[in-house]
Design brief:
This protein is of the alpha/beta class and 407 residues long. The chain is built from 15 helices and 16 strands. It has an 8-stranded parallel β-sheet with strand order 4-14-13-12-11-10-6-5. Strands 1-2-3 form a 3-stranded antiparallel β-sheet. Strand 11, helix 9 and strand 12 form a beta-alpha-beta unit. Helix 6 packs across helix 7. The radius of gyration is 21 Å and the shape is globular. Bound molecules: zinc ion (ZN). Zinc ion binds next to helix 13 and helix 15.
Length: 407
């Protein structure tokens, strides 16, 4: 097979301001302007927000969780439905995590060995096993544009010996992920030329379908043949700066198309998170995308972008929305409070989203108090819009060369 038939995503930096970078990540399912916030679609669904709304909000890439999709509906089902893009009718880019974080956070009965992790399903208690190879195989089957190495998320707190042993295990697993990926990446959905990767009934079309959502059924195939998935490595090392440096250097030596900082937001103080992110970033290559996993608040995503992080994801905007917490340009608004019962103002007077253009705080408060499902939908749309807008403003500032990014 020709080498040109497996082209991974490419990344270019277009502007810098201090340590911050404005870049462009080109994937088989469209270009992503970085720094980017990635909405989390755990079960092939960003909770409460339809795909057409995500497109309207300008989401360029969303996440799926391998652990959850592996358990339900199962990788084979997703693969047969055209991978995640075809299954969930999402034409833009997708990233899947490896399942490592969920195995460690949702399974107290897990057993870790050199070979992999035995765990029990949080749904029915059934036993399962993930190895670097099987987690990568699952992600090839799900067919996201960017897939992640299977790592061990070190618990916090942990002593130095434990952190080192865990980091060493992640390094050995990273090598196995890379080897498996190189040997099997051509088995991915996009390499089977002549086969549509979407469910039947979709019209065959060129890449322009991606640019014109809402115009009838959308073709979810990648716009051109010759692309393959990209595999990102994950830096671990707990809260130890030296071990983070060593993990970064060894992960880079293995060679990935992007580098993530994992194992943070696991209960440590936020000041420590910032310190570890800042020190780890110094050891990551300039010319590859840098992904900080699982953060954060609007203030934090601005700060991390200013430090040079290119990609971030967090369940916070949607999870908080379901609990009646709105992020606004004027700070947090707990819409459930009685003080909003007759407030005719929009949730955020400075937000251009469809929710703020149409509905009042009084109405959103009423929906929440009445336990109407529309409350969760509208709150989620606003919060995601706020996060995505925040990141667009940050990118604009970087493009103008503004070093001090303000929230
Ligand atoms: Zn809004």
């Amino acid at each position: 097979m020709l080498q040109s038939q497996t082209v991974p995503a490419s990344f270019h930096i277009e502007a810098t301001a201090g340590k911050a970078r404005a870049g462009r990540l080109v994937t088989p399912h469209g270009e992503i302007e970085t720094p980017v916030f990635m909405p989390v679609g755990t079960l092939a669904s960003v909770k409460g927000v339809p795909q057409e709304t995500l497109e309207e909000l300008g989401a360029q890439i969303i996440l799926g969780n391998t652990y959850h999709l592996y358990l339900r509906p199962g990788v084979e089902t997703v693969r047969r439905m055209g991978g995640l893009h075809g299954f969930m009718a999402w034409p833009r880019a997708i990233l899947t995590d490896s399942g490592g974080f969920q195995v460690f956070s949702l399974n107290e009965l897990r057993k870790v060995s050199e070979e992999g992790v035995t765990f029990r399903s949080h749904l029915d208690g059934s036993p399962h096993f993930f190895s670097p190879e099987s987690a990568t195989e699952a992600q090839i089957g799900l067919g996201a544009d960017i897939i992640m190495a299977f790592d061990e998320c070190t618990e916090y707190p942990a002593d130095r010996g434990r952190v080192r042993a865990s980091m060493e295990l992640t390094q050995r697993w990273a090598e196995r992920c890379k080897r498996y990926f190189e040997e099997h990446k051509k088995e991915g959905l996009w390499q089977k030329s002549g086969q549509s990767s979407v469910a039947s009934g979709r019209r065959p079309a060129g890449s322009e379908a991606i640019e014109q959502p809402g115009n009838g059924p959308v073709d979810h195939r990648p716009p051109a043949t010759g692309h393959c998935q990209s595999l990102f490595g994950i830096v671990q090392g707990g809260m130890d700066r030296e071990l983070r440096k060593e993990s970064a250097e060894r992960t880079i030596a293995i060679g990935f198309q992007g580098y993530a900082i994992g194992g943070l937001s696991v209960g440590e103080p936020r000041a420590l998170t910032r310190e570890i992110v800042e020190s780890t970033l110094e050891h990551l290559p300039e010319d590859k995308p840098r992904y900080l996993m699982g953060v954060g608040t609007p203030e934090e995503i601005v700060e991390y972008a200013s430090q040079g992080v290119d990609m971030m994801d967090c369940v916070l905007p949607t999870r908080a929305a379901r609990h009646g917490l709105l992020f606004t340009s004027e700070g947090k608004v707990s819409i459930k409070q009685a003080r909003y019962a007759q407030d005719q103002n929009p949730p955020d007077p400075n937000c251009g989203c469809r929710v703020c253009q149409r509905y009042s705080r009084a109405y959103l408060r009423h929906l929440y108090a009445s336990n109407e499902m529309l409350a969760q939908v509208l709150n989620s749309i606003h919060n995601l819009s706020f996060y995505l807008d925040t990141m667009r403003r940050v990118r604009h500032s970087i493009s103008l060369g503004e070093v001090r990014l303000s929230f």
